[in-house]
Amino acid sequence: MSDPRILTLRVLRSSPGEGVTPHWEEFRVEEAEGMTLFIALNEVRETLAPSLQFDFVCRAGICGSCGMLINGRPGLACRTLTRDLGPLITLAPLPVFELIGDLSVNTGKWMRGTAERLQTWIHAHAEPDLTALEAPMEPALAEAVYELDRCIECGCCVAGCGTLRMREDFVGAVGLNKIARFRLDPRDGRTDEDFYALIGDDAGVFGCMSLMACHDVCPKGLPLQTQIAFLRRKMARTGL
Ligand code: SF4
Ligand code: F3S
Ligand code: FES
Questions:
Q1: Full-model pTM
Q2: pLDDT of 70-83, one tens digit each?
Q3: Is the Cβ atom of 220 under 6 angstroms away from ligand 3?
């Protein structure tokens, strides 16, 4: 058996609250069987840099809190195996979001703002049909809603989107995906005109330049490309 690799984690460190400007620091760890970046970063924090900031909750690709730039590409640290990377790994915080420190960013603030702006909750029908509301949803439709509901709000699509680097008010693929999800849901009483009022402009579906990084980096494999193209066609018709 060959000796384990020694990995170098090159981490962009900063602490805006304490006036620490961004700088690179390198940490060396011995690779273990099945090691993820979560495990490697924990080892760094336990043995080399107790002040290192990064976010984790579930370690299973569910909570969405461990998004970061891994060799320049947005991804989840808890789902990234070190064996899939070279011996030098660069880690930086996701751009776009408010930086807390080191690899920790405030995705929650951005996601909450977008949710409030796009009103991503079920809006009751003006005259609710109680029988229809209590009827079970067709399995195919329930499956389609569930598919889009798998978003974990990790922010990878936001960090990878070129449009968001140019206009702060763009709702991003995550926002467009939410609208697609509520449009599908028969319990939501909003019309296409209502959805058009929320995303029918350059901060919404017409601001997307089809760069498709969102689709490529989404760790949940959501069909963002299809959904955005569909919404754009639909909104273009609605707006005429
Ligand atoms: Fe993350 Fe995908 Fe949701 Fe974007 S759409 S926030 S990449 S899970
Ligand atoms: Fe951005 Fe995705 Fe559109 S990367 S430009 S939201 S296709
Ligand atoms: Fe929850 Fe990575 S720690 S998704």
A1: 0.94
A2: 999 999 999 999 99
A3: no
